[in-house]
Specification:
There is one protein chain. The chain is an alpha+beta fold and 142 residues long. It has one domain: Immunoglobulin-like (Sandwich), CATH 2.60.40. The protein is 39% helix and 23% strand. It has four helices and six strands. It has a six-stranded antiparallel β-sheet with strand order 2-1-3-4-5-6, with helices on one face. The longest helix has 23 residues. The protein is globular, with a radius of gyration of 18 Å.
C-alpha cells in the first residue's frame, strides 16, 4: 500500500499543477498556441499572421498579470488572439499607460515591451498612439 501512495503522489501533484497553473496565469487559453491575431481600432481592421509578429506580441501578453486595478481607459483597440483552445481579447490602455487588459487582469508592460507591440501593430496600419489621442480629446470614451 505504501508503494502505491509513493508512486501516486507525484502523479497527483503534476495533475494539480496542470490544473492550477492556468488559473494563476489568469485562466486564459495558452497564448503560446496563438495561430493569428485580429485587431480592431477606430474602424480599421488588421489580421496578423506572421509567426514572428505573433510571437513578439504574445510574449508580452503572456506575462504574469498584476493584481493592481488601474483606472485607465480600455476598449478603443481590441486585439483578438486566436489560439487552438479559444480566443483571448487584449485591450491596451489608451491614456499613455503601458498596460494591457486581458480577461479583467492587467499586464504591466515596460516601455520596451509596449514599443514591441506598437511596432508590430503599426506594420499592419494600427496605431495605439492615434487611439490614445482620440481618447484624450473625447472622441472615444471606451
Amino acid at each position: 500500500m505504501k508503494k502505491n501512495i509513493t508512486v501516486a503522489l507525484p502523479v497527483v501533484l503534476v495533475v494539480l499543477a496542470a490544473a492550477i497553473l492556468p488559473v494563476l496565469r489568469g485562466g486564459t487559453p495558452t497564448l503560446s498556441e496563438a495561430e493569428s491575431i485580429s485587431v480592431l481600432a477606430g474602424g480599421a481592421e488588421a489580421v496578423i499572421s506572421d509567426p514572428g509578429d505573433i510571437r513578439a506580441m504574445t510574449a508580452v501578453f503572456s506575462k504574469i498579470p498584476s493584481t493592481d486595478m488601474p483606472s485607465c481607459p480600455f476598449g478603443a483597440v481590441d486585439i483578438q488572439v486566436r489560439t487552438k483552445s479559444g480566443d483571448v481579447h487584449v485591450f491596451p490602455a489608451t491614456d499613455g499607460c503601458y498596460i494591457f487588459k486581458i480577461n479583467n487582469k492587467y499586464i504591466l508592460a515596460s516601455g520596451e515591451e509596449w514599443e514591441q507591440v506598437s511596432e508590430v501593430l503599426e506594420k499592419y496600419g494600427i496605431s495605439i498612439e492615434e487611439q490614445t489621442a482620440r481618447t484624450k480629446i473625447g472622441e472615444d470614451k471606451n
